[in-house]
From TrEMBL, chains A, B:
Keywords: Signal. NCBIfam families: TRAP_S1. PANTHER family: EXTRACYTOPLASMIC SOLUTE RECEPTOR PROTEIN, PTHR33376. It comes from the Bacteria. The keyword Oxidoreductase does not apply. This is TRAP transporter substrate-binding protein.
């Protein structure tokens, strides 16, 4: 999913209104965060002072699994850790502001915080995109290492700071799928003339490969695919894709998601409001964001496997790998696209430089360690 | 590193006293967690009630990078989030109790919490080992998904609950290296007669391959390798290995760490003491653990790359991959070892079953997603 899904209220309404999507909603993902009222033998809870009451606006439909429920989890964590001194009411897209309005709403302080994914705000500064995902870029583990230990968060602070915002990772989809296709993709040439719903940088790559990029709100994708208005679409991964019912409309499910190798979801805070918090509440917000970031990735990782199994075993979906040659050709085009994007603002140039340097250094280690171990570990699966 | 490093005070002293290791200590890793005293315009901090003052005992030498400093980071996070209502004094190995005494000290309440790695306590219940790492088992991402979203933490609660303990992940080394070798390893046969310092389950595999497993405290490894008392040793990864100076004593640095594909470090709480905390402090401890868990893995991931570069470019270390055939042969032996270990206690049987089921399901997804993307992403590095 990318920001162009959110270019209008209709887009959000489409997402929220899709029956397949509604079927995806899962109340079970709201986890209890620990009860109240047990014996307090050690320390009195914190209840002095005024209560901080904040609003969080998101880009997600109500109950959207892991993403909207993750935002709600963050709010619950903050409330429990602060013993009720800080409450955050979470509003899904359109409940308070439209999905596309989240950035401005938080920037201006209409809401104190919000959630989405940084690349939705490429129109504010193209630099935002590197904090979500760029084609053939860092995966979730690499992205988190860049953020927390490689200077990424400092760059993010600089970019969002231009808009009176502070952004923090609050989840990651893990490696997405390349998408659903009504025809086989055996080489880069098979993208020629392909009508594909794929927004953002991925779409620019497909366009460069000769495809026709179609932009559709979430709620219209299934029907368009079923009726042949489009030949292919990307979405997220097995968990979310299963619930969209794409397997009923397309035969081939391709991997890997070269365009989104681990898309970061964020929480953004109004900078003035955040800076006015006392140190303990600031730290609680930071910790809740990090905890939710970890939890969301784990939920995707744990649940995608079962969904993939259901897609294959129950719905007879054919999982295919894009060939190394196809991926190599896409990567050449992606590098052109990303390099061009990096020239579009001074911050984009700076962030792209930091990202690329980190990917090179971390990648050389990941190549020796994680990649090699994956090969070893996977043989026996 | 495994529990047998910690079988005596001498082992810990050896680790702590090694000059190479002392050179590894880095005060910069102590990060500021946010200042105090800024304007509190929104809510008064929490300072009512008695202060909770806890002791944390660890298995690590003072200032041991990422591991001991991570434990100190956790304590700082808890203090800031609780606005000083909860303070944890952190003691390195031997400062209050010996490294091997941590489990009992926390179980009995001599200290309220502690840090190490679960497999150090295999002697208490062999089931503990699955929460750290088993040969060819889940990597860091899989292990975290199992813990937080696949039932792993429930099993951990059950195992540690037998000892009045609660355990939580508080870091992960990521994929370790297979070790330093004075001779080439081209097949499983090359382990025959090899004198290798490799404790734990990995050691049992090497013994089954015909190697001679030598147990040595950390401080004696370098000298033993240099003098030919041993032919090979495993340790952690580039960051820690560089500072141990192994490159001066062995020529070949093999990957991947099939025996520790992502070893989990933990924080353990005395269960009675933890349960007596008010809900907010419980949640703060949980969040601080999760945040530290993420940070430690990111620190390893971000810093290992630079260390590996230094090893290769400055010290001319030869990085070699174990051949797929060697790894396949090791895996056969590892499965025998792990299966035997799973029969050694009722909880080990139960935990191994849960672990294996999760690895199978998650692995099928990781194979399609993360592994495939790694191949794609890495081509360009």
């Amino acid at each position: 999913m990318k920001r162009r899904d959110f270019l209008s209220k209709a887009a959000i309404a489409g997402l929220a209104g899709g029956t397949a999507l509604l079927a995806a909603c899962n109340d079970d993902t709201k986890k209890a965060e620990g009860g109240k009222g047990e014996a307090n033998q050690a320390a009195a809870p914190a209840q002095v002072g005024k209560t901080v009451h904040w609003k969080m606006v998101t880009t997600w439909p109500p109950k959207f699994p892991i993403l909207q429920t993750g935002a709600e989890d963050l709010a619950k964590r903050v409330e429990v850790m602060s013993n009720g001194r800080m409450k955050i009411d979470v509003y899904a897209a359109n409940e308070l502001v439209p999905g596309l309005g989240v950035f401005d709403a938080v920037s201006q302080g209409t809401a104190e915080c919000g959630s989405g994914s940084p690349y939705y705000w490429a129109g504010k500064d193209p630099a935002c995109q590197w904090f979500s995902a760029v084609p053939f870029g860092l995966n979730a583990q690499g992205l988190n290492a860049w953020f927390y230990s490689g200077g990424g968060l400092d760059l993010w602070d600089e970019v969002y700071g231009q808009f009176n915002l502070i952004g923090r990772p609050m989840g990651n989809t893990g490696v997405q799928m390349a998408g659903w296709f009504n025809r086989e993709i055996n080489s880069i040439d098979d993208f020629k003339g392909l009508k594909m719903r794929i927004p953002g940088l991925g779409g620019k790559v497909i366009a460069r490969a000769g495809g026709t990029v179609v932009l559709l709100p979430g709620g219209e994708i299934f029907t368009s695919l079923e009726r042949g208005v489009i030949d292919a679409t990307e979405w997220v991964g097995p968990l979310h894709d299963l619930r969209m019912g794409f397997y009923q409309a397309a035969k081939y499910y391709y991997t890997p998601g070269w365009h989104e190798g681990g898309s970061c979801l964020d929480v953004m805070f109004n900078k003035d409001k955040f800076n006015a918090l006392p140190s303990d509440l600031k730290a609680i917000c930071e910790a809740a964001a990090a905890q939710t970031n970890m939890q969301a990735l784990c939920d995707f990782e744990a649940q995608n496997g079962a969904a993939l199994k259901e897609l294959v075993e129950k719905h007879h979906v054919q999982v295919r790998k894009l060939t190394p040659e196809t991926l190599a050709d896409l990567r050449v085009l992606a590098r052109e696209v990303v390099a061009e994007e990096a020239t579009k603002s001074p911050m984009a140039t700076k962030v792209a430089k930091g990202f690329n340097e980190f990917q090179k250094q971390w990648g050389s280690w990941a190549d020796v360690s994680s990649r090699t171990y994956f090969d070893t570990m996977s043989i026996g699966v």
